[in-house]
Amino acid sequence: MTKIDGRTKAGAGPTRRQTLAGLGVGAGLAAAGVLPSMPAVAQNRPRTVRWWSPQAAPAQLAAYRYQIETFMAAHPDISVVFEASSDEGYPAQLAAAFASGQVPGIVTHLPSFAVTNYYSQNLLSPFGPVINAIGAEKFYPGANKVYEVQPNVFAGIGIGNSAANAMWLRSDLMQQAGVTAVPRTWDELRAAARAMQRGGVFGAPLPYARNSMTSLIIICFIHGAGGNVCAPDLQPSLTTDAVANALEFYKSMRELCPPGATNYSWGESLTAFVSGAAATGIYTGRVLANVNAQNPRIAEFVSAHNYPTISASVAPWTFNDFPSVMIPRQFADQDAAVKFAAWLFREDGYVRQLHAAPGHVLPVLKTISDSALYQENDIIKRYKPSVDLMSQAAAAGHNLGWESPAHQQNFKAREIIGSHVLAELVQRVTLNNENPRTAAAWAQDRIGEIMRRT
Fold it and tell me: What pTM does this model have?
C-alpha cells in the first residue's frame, strides 16, 4: 500500500482571528441544522463524529443512513450524526463553527478550492491517514492532485468527480426545430437555442444572479473563450479579448433564458431543463435521475455533451468542483474522523452514494468504476455514452483553484467566489449594459485586492 505522509504540519498561515475576519462571521449566525431523519447520537457511545454536507437529497440521505448505520455497527463506541449545510451558505456556516470551536468531524461535497483555502489557513488536518486507510493505489492516477498542497501532503480528497457544465440537449426539440447537429461553437449554440425557443420553452437556463453559480459558470465561459481568470502565476487576467468576448456572448444569451434567470442558482437552472421549460441545460449528471423521476416523457431524448466554446480551435473546458472530504483540525477525536472518512469509500456504501444520483458524482476510485456493483444501475447503463463522456471530461477538468496544468494552485479561489465579484461582473455587463472591458477592469482590480490579502 502506498503511504502518504499525513503527519506533516500544515504550512503557516494567517492567525485564526485573521482567518475568521476574512470569512465574515456574523453575530448570531447559526451553523447547520441536524436532519431528524438521520441516526441520533446513540446511548453509551463516548465518541461522536458530526458529518456536514450540502448534498442532502432524499436518495442521498438514504445512502448516508446506510453508511452511518454500518459504520456504527462496526464501531460500537462511535456515533455519527449527519447535519445539512448549504451550497451558498457554507462559508458563513463553517466560519461560525471555526470561531466557536464547535467544528464537525468531517465535511464532504465542498469544492476543492474551498478545501485548499481552509488548509492554507491552518484549519484542516492533513489527509494522509485517510488515503492510507483507503489505499492510494485504488484512486485514479492524479485524482487527488488538486488537493496536493505540498509534495505528498494533501488537504483532503475527492469524494467524487463532477462535470458541472455539461451541456444537456433534447433530440426531440432539436428535430422539431430543424437543428441537425450538436452545437460545437457559441454561434451554433445560440442559433440552436433560438430555433428551439418556442411554445413557452426557452433556449437556455443560464444564471444571472449575484451568487456562486453565476460566478462559476462565467469562469467556464471565460475558459471557453480561451481566457483565464488568473494567469498561471496567479496574477488576475481579466482585461483580455477572451474575457470581453465571453461577457458579450453571455449577454447575448440573456434573451434566450427565462425571465427568472436573474435569480437562478443551481436548483432553478436544473429544474428549468428537467421540467421542459428550457431546451438546453448546463448542469452535472443529476439531470439524468431527475428527468427519469420527474419528467420521464422526455427521458429518451436527453443526452450530455461538452459545452461549446467560442470556436472549434478552443478545446472544451470542464468545470469539476472535485466534491471533497476534509477533516477540521480543531475536531478533538481525529482518530474517529479518519475512520469514518475512510469508511465512506467502502464499496457497498460508496456505490449506494453514487447511485443516489447516477452520473452526478462520479467515482474517484478506479476499483469502484470497474466494479459490477457500480455498473449494475439502470440509469448508468441506459445513458452510458453520456456518463462516459462526463467521466472523461471531469477527469480532465479544472476549476478556479487550479485553472490549468500550467497554473499554480490558487488558495484564494474560495474567497474570490464568495466575494461575488465575478457574478457582479456578469450583472454589470448583462443587466446594467456596462462596457465589458470597463467592467472587467473593475473586476480585475477587486480580485487583485483579494489576492493581496494576508
Answer: 0.81
